């Protein structure tokens, strides 16, 4: 995989993947506002899947799990303008405003496809990526412009951007049942459920009477079997959406659990 990134600042970048495929399970530390220049991305979240193409714009909330699958398209690389909206920056921005966000709601991915104001703001960044020694104030102004536009076109966005709570201790069993398909380190699962790694493992054993790795593998394989048999999906598609990192490992684990290969379920 050939990956390239150009930065205006550490919080604004032009990201390019030139290979045929890239997959990653992620939890973003900051909110990310993304505009597609070219290519295609499939994002798998707990609430469903999203497909984004050239011209699309969306915001991924922080501290949310997602599977990101990037594809080049029509001979063009997968290229995006990415703006990180950090907690530090947003605290400073909202300190001047009287905003009381609703907390406790599930933060879903927000889509603003081809919105002219946002597209104009983000596309105007392109010339800056080839400039040297760009003043920091310009980058800050562009982030401010983007957030002002978001607040003007999406009245609910303050509930995401102005919510500075960190994950607290929540129901572990329910959370894992909703998020087992994301291939995260156990430390991340612990953080997102409000636990240390030691406490997470202890509470997991109480909830499921087995180890996290054994439970995760079985849940992912059961979901894969359902997707193959009932949804007629291809093994190459199912493999990455249920939390495996490569097709060979998925096929080996699948056959070990069920006694036959994933391809045997193809109609």
Protein architecture, described:
The protein is of the alpha+beta class and 267 residues long. It folds into two domains: 3-161, Jelly Rolls, CATH 2.60.120.810; 172-265, Orthogonal Bundle (Arc Repressor Mutant, subunit A), CATH 1.10.10.60. The chain contains ten helices and ten strands. A six-stranded antiparallel beta sheet has the order 1-2-9-4-7-10. A hairpin with a 2-residue loop joins β1 (3-9) and β2. α6 crosses α7. The longest helix is centred in the C-terminal third of the chain and has 19 residues, at 212-230. The chain is globular, with a radius of gyration of 20 Å. The relative contact order is 0.12.
Q: Which properties best describe this structure?
A:
Jelly Rolls; alpha+beta; Arc Repressor Mutant, subunit A; 2 domains; 4-stranded antiparallel β-sheet; 267 residues
Question: What is the structure about, briefly put?
Answer:
The protein is α+β, with helices and mostly antiparallel strands and 267 residues long. It has helices at residues 87-94, 116-123, 136-153, 158-161, 172-179, 186-192, 197-208, 212-230, 235-241, 247-258, and strands at 3-9, 12-17, 22-27, 31-38, 40-45, 48-52, 57-60, 65-71, 78-85, 110-111. Strand 1 and strand 2 (12-17) form a beta hairpin.
CATH class descriptor of the largest domain? Mainly Beta
The separation of the N and C termini measures 32 Å
Structural classification: alpha+beta
Largest sheet: 6 strands, antiparallel
How many domains? The number is 2
Total number of strands = 10
Give me the CATH architecture of the largest domain, please. Answer: Sandwich
The pLDDT mean sits at 90
Assembly classification: single chain
By CATH, the topology of the largest domain is Jelly Rolls
Query: Over all CA atoms, what is the radius of gyration?
Result: 20 Å
The proportion of strand residues reads: 15-25%
Shape: globular
Task: Return the string of H and E elements.
Answer: EEEEEEEEEHEHHHHHHHHH
Query: What is the topology, as strand order, of the major beta sheet?
Result: 1-2-9-4-7-10
Helix content: 25-40%
Contiguous uncertain segments of 5+ residues: none
Number of helical elements: 10
């Amino acid at each position: 995989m050939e990956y390239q990134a150009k930065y205006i600042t550490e919080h604004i970048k032009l990201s390019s993947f030139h290979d045929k495929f890239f997959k990653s399970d992620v939890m973003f530390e900051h909110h990310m506002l993304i505009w597609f220049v070219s290519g295609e991305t499939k994002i798998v979240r707990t609430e469903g899947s999203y497909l984004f193409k050239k011209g699309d714009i969306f915001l991924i909330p922080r501290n949310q799990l997602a599977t990101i699958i990037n594809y080049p398209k029509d001979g063009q690389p997968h290229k995006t303008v990415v703006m990180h909206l950090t907690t530090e920056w947003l605290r400073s921005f909202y300190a001047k405003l009287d905003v009381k966000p609703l907390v406790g709601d599930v933060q879903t991915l927000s889509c603003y496809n081809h919105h002219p104001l946002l597209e104009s703001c983000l596309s105007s960044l392109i010339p800056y990526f080839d400039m040297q020694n760009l003043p920091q104030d310009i980058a800050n102004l562009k982030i401010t412009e983007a957030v002002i536009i978001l607040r003007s076109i999406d009245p609910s966005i303050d509930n995401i951007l102005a919510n500075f709570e960190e994950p607290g201790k929540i129901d572990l069993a329910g959370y894992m049942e909703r998020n087992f398909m994301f291939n995260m380190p156990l430390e991340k699962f612990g953080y997102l459920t409000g636990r240390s790694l030691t406490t997470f493992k202890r509470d997991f054993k109480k909830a499921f009477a087995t180890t996290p790795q054994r439970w995760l593998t079985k849940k992912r394989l059961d979901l894969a079997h359902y997707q193959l048999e009932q949804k007629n999906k291809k093994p190459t598609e199912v493999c990455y959406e249920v939390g495996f990192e490569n097709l060979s490992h998925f096929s080996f684990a699948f056959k070990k659990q069920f006694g036959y290969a994933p391809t045997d379920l193809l109609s």
